[in-house]
Amino acid sequence: MTDIAQSYCLSFPTNIDHAKKSLVLSNYEERIRIEGIPPSLGVALLKRINDGGTINDAGKGGDDREVADTAAAISAADDSISGLEGAAAERFLRTLVQEKIAARPTRSTCTGHELRVILDDHFAAWNTALFSHSLWTSLAEGSARPAVVDGWLIESYHFIRGANARLSYAASLCPDPRIKAIFAHHYVEEYDHYEFFAQSLRARAIDVDDVDRQGPLAATRAVLNMARKAARTDPIAYAACSGLMESTGSDADRARTFYGKVAEHFDKSGSGFVRPMIAHVNLDEKFEHGSVMADVLDPIPVLTVEHANRVLQTVFQFKETLMMWFSEVQTHYHRNPFKGRALYRHGRGNPPE
Amino acid sequence: MLIRSPDVTFSTLGDSSILENSETRLTFTGASSRLCTAIWSQLDLRESVEEIAGQTGYSARSVSDFLAVLSEDHFALDTGCDALLDADAALALTRRCAAFWNRHVMTQPFPRLLFSGQATPSHVLGWGIEFHIFVKAARDYMARGASRIDGPTPALRGLWDHFVDEAFHDAIFREGLIGCGVPAGNIDNRIPLPSTTALLNHLWEAAEDGDLAYASVFALMQPLTEPPSEENVRARYAFLKEVYPDAAPLFDAFEQHDLIDASLEHASLTIEPLLRARGGVSRHEMTLITQTIQRTADCFDLFFAGIQSHYRNRLTIDYRQIPRIDAMLPAEA
User: Is the pTM here over 0.80, yes or no?
Assistant: First the structure.
């Protein structure tokens, strides 16, 4: 039974793909066309659920003010729609529940393991999205400019070197001794892996001192700062961000295949610049870093759902920050090839056409 | 260090050298053109006027005079300084640097679009939404910036007062957004764009870095030497309300906030009492200040670009899903 006086929550993700002629929603797996409701009203109701309200906030015997107000507004704007009833909202809600787009929140707590399983599901989908970014596809397909290859290496070096800014920080701030030890162990394993990327830079004749002097792009700092933000606000959120990072490299075979393609397209001179990165993949595979999030989360007997929601929100922001990072690396180095001699590097510019 | 503006292009036409940004075009001919070509190619690569003089064969005086011309139009910035600077010199360099980078930020595509009255309604409201999040973040980064007591009270008091002044100003913008029809639930639970998050986290890190770095971010945000007059503030928002009538309540909020800021003299640099209390700064500290100002500008660039790219239609205002696990949890056994 659906009840518009009750709170519902949306399955994540619920994307609104179209809301003009018809209402089309999507998630990771499918697109769903919702019939029988004006798209504007459907959006208003989805918005309402997303904002944390009930569809019928008054909740008294069909006194559906929000829907009625929305319907009236839509009717005023569009003469072809008239006489919308609160029943339309109930039908819509029923469809959302049947399609597993919305559900009544029934739990106030969950286990760490349950959260981890949900995060793993998201990470699988997010990895597909992350590595479908044109930065990565252009590297795999060989269409990237050599300057972008340099830039990708330079910013990857800063990012990996940034383990010293985030992992030790996470360990230092963690109030739970068990989790603190996991972070410290992870740090000990990771702290000097930037050397693999330094070797790759040298193989491409890029001076690491120049790279250090000029520092990372603002977007690379943004990734590290987002991880630090997670670390100082919640060690579980940090573990989730770490889990996303580790999941990106957890498929060692896929990574080796990718690096093979990069070498094929961008190392015709045989500098061997991808070899250190393959060595890095092999080492991470040996360390089994993919288990850090599970090691942190699985033993946790109880978390409030509100806490778990904040963890998901933090790691979602982290994923969005990674996407922004890829775009910035690609755009910046496409326009501004790395100049080793420069004392200084600019961010964005807006020169006249 | 001698920095060229990233917003300037260099070109040649016949025996002329042309430097131009979106507002100004400087043309040099004959000997001046050769001087321009030689010096422009050295910017970003050299620490000092003397180094450029050594590289180009021009006298230090010629290089210095030419750079003065470029600096006037914010085409170049000289952040070079002595090993020790007194407070006045440090303040002057801070102001020059802040003006240079503030101008850079405000001439990026989105601010130009927005403040010239050509942005779409979604862009305007999207800007209001992200700006509200930025103002609300005072309770994070300004709280961190204020949380220090080592130093003379008159110097630190400015940091404490500033946070107290700003701590709840988000309420002004929240009302403005509600007045534009954005529901409170949409405002209060909004997940910031990653570009906004990048700015906020940078501000927190600057606050963490120390009082000078923290105060430097305000030099960029409020680079004016005089507070704007009430007349100026009202004229600015009268224009914006005229070109964006649907967003008038939001601009009422901005107007109210700017008038409060002006009355609190937020145009005076937060960093000034800190510099005076120190009696000056070392080159290392000055580099921290100029670098923080530039990094803050980089983050504002991201902030504005993120708004422009995300808020393309009304749906982006109405709906940004808040990730929750509730619907994915199995019912309890």
Answer: yes
